[in-house]
Amino acid sequence: MRCVISLSLFFLLLTESCSRGTYSSAYLQATHDQILWTLRHDDADKALRDVNGALVRLAGKNLEWTWRLKVLKAQVLLTKSDSQEALSVLREPLPASLVATDISVRKAMMEGIAHRQAQQFPESEKNLAEAEQFARASHPQLLGDVLNARGALEVDQKKFSRGEMTFEQALTLVRQARDRGGEASVLNNLARVAMSREHFDEAIDRAHVALDLSRSLGLKPLSATVLGNLGWSYFELGDFENALDFYGKGAQASSASGLSGYSAYWFSDVATAYLALREYAPAEELARTTLTRAHELKNAQTITLCNNTLAEIMLITGRLSEAGQYNQEALKMEEEGQDKFGTIDSLLMAGHIADAKKRFSDAENFFRRVLGDPTVDTRRRWEAEAGLAQVWDGEGKFVEAERQYLKAINMIEQARRSVNHDELRLSFLSSGIAVYGEYIDFLIRRGRPADALNQAELSRARTLSEGLSSNEQIESPRAASRVPPQQLAQRLHATLLVYWVGEKHSYLWAVTPSKTKYFTLPPAAEIDRLIKSYRELTLKSGDLLQSAASTGEKLYASLVEPAKNLILPSSRVILLPDASLYGLNFETLIVPGLRPHFWIEDVTVTTASSLSLLASAPTRAPPKEKNLLLVGDALPVPEFGPLPQAPAEMQKIEQYFPESRRAILKGTQATPSSYLGSKPGRFSYLHFVTHGTASRARPLESAVILSKEPAGDAYKLYARDIVRHRLNANLVTISACNGSGTRAYSGEGLVGLSWAFLRAGAHNVIGALWEVSDASTPQLMDALYSELSQGKDPATALRDAKLTLLHSADSDSVFKKPFYWAPFQLYAGS
Questions:
Q1: Taking a C-beta distance cutoff of 8 angstroms, is the pair 131, 146 a contact?
Q2: What is the DSSP string of 152-167?
């Protein structure tokens, strides 16, 4: 790749050329290189204006440079996704005097890229073969670029193995030429082929490398494309929040770089991410505006994407007629050959619409057309399998429907197991959880609530339980799940409340030692709305019994009251929440009556991730010796100031353990390496008095904030490091903000510090759902350990400690409010 000529030299050449009334080769080369630099580093719109201006000034006076600038203009237009205009610029044959030059390679390559963008693959293949032949014969310095273009075509043709081989060859060549920009482009394409092969964890790793390199080189347009591709990978992994973030960044960056076609494309994906997150209003608004823009750009692929997104929104919100209209528009574009990439999505949507209209024969035909395509990716294949199940359910073919549901679920499980990174596997079930929900609805309708409960259980805490069972000394939690729920309730002396929150129907199974009953609850949208409102009121630290009684009572009526007769007063309740319920402290729900009160006054509550993990708990006895590892009172670090009450909290806690049975890491000793090197697995109690962070984007980057290491600036004990050090603690207490995490994953629950300590092997973990008060927490923790010292179990001890604040003799105590005592929840492990 040529170096960019300096601006001072450029203007010098410009002055000399203009003074002579001619354009020297040096000036023309400088002009070309400056436009190319602008295209790669800044703004395609400016590059287009500049190249048009250069062509006007040249006015055909120099044949060679006229053609070089025409090829460059085509490249600019292709960067802007305007393939037809690019082909128009290049439509004339190259003059005979230039056939032997590198312009032949560049022209054929641009024509090949243009035909690929227009989804005219045979023509593209012909052009790129010609470009490759010319490059190999006479211009090997261009072969890397040609192979990069050919690999992109092969991926579009779904020749994934061949495309990856071609990209690898291109990567070798551009690295040999020390073409760093070319290397970044090929790395992005290697990430894309990994996505296309459904190796999404590998795609994300490759894309981050490409993003770092393109950013370091200042390649803004390429960086924008990599960001959008990252959104695609995260979306396919079911991580819709990260997908929304990266799609949005890709769309905004593309817009800023003049890439109107890419910007519209990524904005259509932003709408799809909103749809997946059930945010239908912004999804519909953005899909409509982007559809208008896509029509202006004549971008067939984006038009199809928007039509399919709008069809799905219409279907979900009950506007069947409009859904059919948008779907027909998408199908029409594919039938006319304008777009090939959206065909499968259009057929799937047609099947769902036909099923909703009870046109079962048509629906089956659409789903079978999807399944008949051997190139269909796994996610769309299981969607078609589940679609067939719904059709046969509607036709009363219940045996066939159940077989089909199980086939789809098995496909989801196989795909999930193929993801190697724990952090990426966490989100995967979100992409297929709707299929589980459909099957659970089917089982309930068939009068099989026990089977529905079992199916709900199979989707829970998969990554957590897999990590625990990876230790050979621990019985597999899934093996323990064979314990019947009622037997488990008897063993634990508790009522188990198992929840499933679905888009159409939600369910509660109440399990006691003697019976199991199920109840139908409101759909997700209604539950989510109440929880969001109640949480906002709680965080304002108001008096919920006065200011939020209505909302608290509605939540109690929706979530607990149906099973009230199965819950004895002063009994133990173990909650197995789902979806948004993980962010709710059930103890704060308001029991209506003559004396409205918080539910904590009636029961002792523990939260668990799955029945199987609860069933495995008796197989792991906690350490017989009660000893403590106390970590905290760390030195202030950037962004995290001192905790004035930390020394007092630590002093209160350590008094409950003899000096010989406690290890204390504080001040300069409270570092991540000191914790990891303390052999934490030998302690029965671990307690952290620190700041904490919760990462929504990457939960295993949630961290306990400690003192800086003596050598270096590291001061975070990350969740991913906690997971790697085995524990056998009876109780881990994270006296820090957001210790429970801030993001719930389908089937996995809240993932953050509490999850990490459970994954490491802790039997019980106390973590916070929101920010904790430095003023009230020492008092609460003192009461907790006082109760534990009397031989109470962690759940009872935590409840009684909370009640000391709630029932404070000081009628003016602010600590009576749930904001102060309710953030801490007890999570039961194995």
A1: yes
A2: HHHHHTT-HHHHHHHH
* DSSP 8-state class, residue 660: G
Model confidence at 811, in pLDDT bands (50, 70, 90)?
A: confident
How far apart, in whole angstroms, are the C-alpha atoms of residue 441 and residue 506?
9
Degrees, nearest 5: CA angle 654-660-665 = 50
> How far apart, in whole angstroms, are the C-alpha atoms of residue 80 and residue 254?
9
Contact assessment for residue 246 and residue 213, using Cβ atoms and an 8 Å cutoff: no
Phi, psi of 628 (to 5 degrees): -130, 135
CA distances from 504 to 386, 500, 544, 575, 642 (A): 16, 11, 30, 22, 47
Alpha helices in 217-335 (DSSP H): 220-236, 240-256, 260-276, 280-297, 300-316, 320-335
Encode 235-259: b = buried (16+ Cβ within 10 Å), e = exposed. bbbbbbbbbbbbbbbbbbbbbebbb
Strand pairing report for 824-828 and 604-608: parallel
For the segment 448-507, what is each residue's pLDDT rounded down to a tens digit? 999 999 998 888 766 666 655 554 444 444 444 467 999 999 999 999 999 999 988 999
Radius of gyration of the chain (CA): 31
Encode pLDDT of 425-452 as tens digits: 777 777 888 899 999 999 999 999 999 9
Q: Rounded CA gap, 251 and 263, in Å?
A: 4
Q: How far apart are CA 575 and CA 608, in angstroms?
A: 6
Question: Which class for 475: exposed (0-12), middle (13-18), buried (19 or more C-beta within 10 A)?
Answer: middle
Percent of the chain with pLDDT over 70: 92
Distance CA 583, CA 598 (A): 17
3-state helix, strand, coil in the chain (%, to 5): 60, 10, 30
Residue in 797, 815, 796, 795 with CA at minimum distance from that of residue 805: 815
∠ CA 258-262-263, rounded to 5° = 70
pLDDT in tens, 587-639: 999 999 889 999 999 999 999 888 888 887 655 555 567 999 999 999 988 78
Residue 130: how many CA atoms within 13 Å on its side-chain side? 20
What pTM was estimated for this model as a whole? 0.84
Q: What sign for the dihedral angle of Cα 433, 435, 438, 440?
A: negative
- Count how many Cα atoms sit within 13 Å of the Cα of residue 464 in the half-sphere of its side chain: 35
